[in-house]
Task: structure prediction
Amino acid sequence: MARFAKARFALVLVGSQALAIVAAALVGAGVWAALGPEERSALAAGVMERGPLLVGLGIGLLAGYGLLVWVLVQQHLAAPLALAQGTRLITHGNASHRLEPLGGAELRELADAINALAAEHETLGGELEARVAEAQQRLGEERDRLAAIVAEASQAVLVCNLEGRILLYNLKARELHGRATDGTSPDGGAGLVGLARSVFVILERALVAHALETIQARLEKGAQRPVASFVTAGGGRLLRVHVSPVLRGGRATQEASDPAPRGAGTSAITGFVLRIDDVTRPLQAGSRTEAALQALTDASRRALANIRAAVETLLAHPGLEAERRAAFVGVIHDEASALSATLDRAAPELTSLRAEWLLENMQGADLLSAARSRIEGTLGLSTTLDEIDPGLWLKVESYSLVRAVVSIGSRLQRRGVRELRLALRPAGRRAHLDVTWSGADVPTEIIARWEDDPPDVDGEPMAPTLRAVVERHDGAVWSQGDRPSGPGFIRLVLPVAEAEQAPLASPVTRGRPEFYDFDLFHQPGQTPELDERKLTALEFTAFDTETTGLNPSDGDEIIAIGAVRIVNGRLLHQEAFEQFVDPGRPVSQETVRITGIDPALLRDKPPIEEVLPRFHRFCEGTVLVAHNGAFDLRFLQLKEAVAGVRFAHPVLDTLLLAELIQPDLPPTGLEGIAERFGVPVLGRHTALGDAIMTGEIFLRMVPLLRARGIETLREAREASQRTWAARLEY
Amino acid sequence: MKKRILIADDEPNIVMSLQFLMEFEGYEVRTAADGETALQILGDFRPDLVLLDVMMPKRNGYEICQVVRETPALAGIKVVMLTAKGRDIDAEKGLALGADSYVTKPFATKELVATVKALLGDA
Result:
């Protein structure tokens, strides 16, 4: 800029002086042309005579003019440029810089004004920074507080994004699933709950999806805080799961005058919170109590009926012969004694109330449309709904109920039914859910048998029978085959709930949740090909195996698997997998010497076909990392058939990556590479120790790979392949 | 001709009382202790009314009620269901499947007799 100003100054100076000389020459030439010959010679003589004086005068004039231009340029061109530079410095660099007063009075005033502005800018900036720092601190505190609340919670808590990746969990969640999924091995089971892992490894996806659909449907109707819950069985336990949505908070700024509040637009679900209780014991107690109560009631009714009939016969017929009379008295005595015994047996069981909490309120119309979409979706069976009163709410466990209806549909379809009709009508304290059809011959006794057959949809062996589902609702089921007088139907009688309060008409601005604010929901999913993702954004499982020898095809077997997860560039030591394996064959002295594993220790360990499925679940959705991975993978792959799993995960090999990064150094073992990359060598020759070391080495490689232009998984794999090929050529 | 009643219940202690009461009222009575037998006797004996316990071995009372209602040869037989199941939903089911009356145990014998007589037009 300064250079530009000087150039401009020189240009102006030279240009204007040249102009002055040309002007003077033109005036001279004009005068010269107007003169006669004598006058011309007289003038020439005069000019020649005073020549030095005239030249001096000309130079003096030019110099004076130059000085004048220089002063003007300083004041009006250079000074503003200096001000501009100073101002830029204030804006972009140093907010406490101030301008020197320069140039004319006007410019000095401008400098003062800019300085005043700069002072205000600096104060505001300082305040803003302080406020940001304060807000961040508060956010940090809130986050810590939330983490503390979650950690202390007596329930298992899992926060997940919409894809079901776990963003936050507490100890209870780990414990629960450690036991729930695999009672025998707390190490492998607990590893299933971890940051960024899929929650669908431990909970059935369909159940969670169903709960979210229910919530979404209620949100669209304007419900304020919809939650859903279900009960699921796993590992011999019953878990009650409450699902509440995490809603996007920022967009709830609807115009207050908007007369039609639309929940859907302002409340997109971005994730969900699962609260899980282990209800195995309460539920078992509940159903025992219920059964005992039912048995007691039935037994009492029977016994009393018999006694009463006998007594009333005796009373009504006083003249009965002695033998008959004795028989009736005998009946009374027998029945009364039996009733006493029944009461004594039942009393201890009758300590709690029925397990009614299994049921939740649901709008009848929602239930039927859920059933219809499942029937049409899974069976392709055309289904029509009769009009349903929107004020009809049921008290139901919707998942198993919908499944029961789908199962009915599936059976009818196999009997030739082409179209179903679903209807729901109130009937006192209960409602009738009718599945109706016509035009197919389905005998009554066949339908009656369906009540006790397990439903045959989804291939779930644990699914309750139609009768069990209905009894859970304190309801009943009856049916009628096709007759000339009318169509066939199956009627489920279900309890009616009190209608939930309809949402008010005024739009409610939904604030952000009060006690936390995570950025965790922005994690990208696994669905776009892993290959295109950056190494820094992937999840890895670094693993290692110990084996009885080096030749898997000659019968050498795995004796230990160790693995550790890497998420978001961190090695998660607490989410480790370590399992010894019974190799089912002797372990060589050499192996014992290297690994320090006592063969006796392996005798009561599970076989590989039990361990591999658990390891497979542990590394679901991740990229495998191993040192000399080809060796470990060969062992794994030879066992795929017996274990019934397949390891199709992408694999990165730290041995190949090391060659990629340092091609000039000779290949070496894990220990040598660890030293090269500055990773401490600890716990060598234990599977978990080596897995952790491999993971640490890999983490240090990622930035070095990036420096070589290798950022995505695909790039890393392809580069590894080239290295591999290059090695083979030697 | 005497009107005929079938008593189907697997508990001899109540069958004894019911049989005595019905015979005293002048009806011809046969008894069955399970569902299969009840169905046989229904065909052979062709009663005017059946006292039907819900919980019986082999075929339960609901099934037998449905058979009676679906079989033209058995048309017109009155069905009185007896049950120790106290839930109103069970009564609803019995009536929905075609029972003429549904009596929950325990009951007053006088009222049962009155119900039977009313159904048979002997009141």
Observations:
- Residues 167 and 520 of chain A are 6 Å apart (CA to CA).
- DSSP finds 22 helices and 17 strands in chain A.
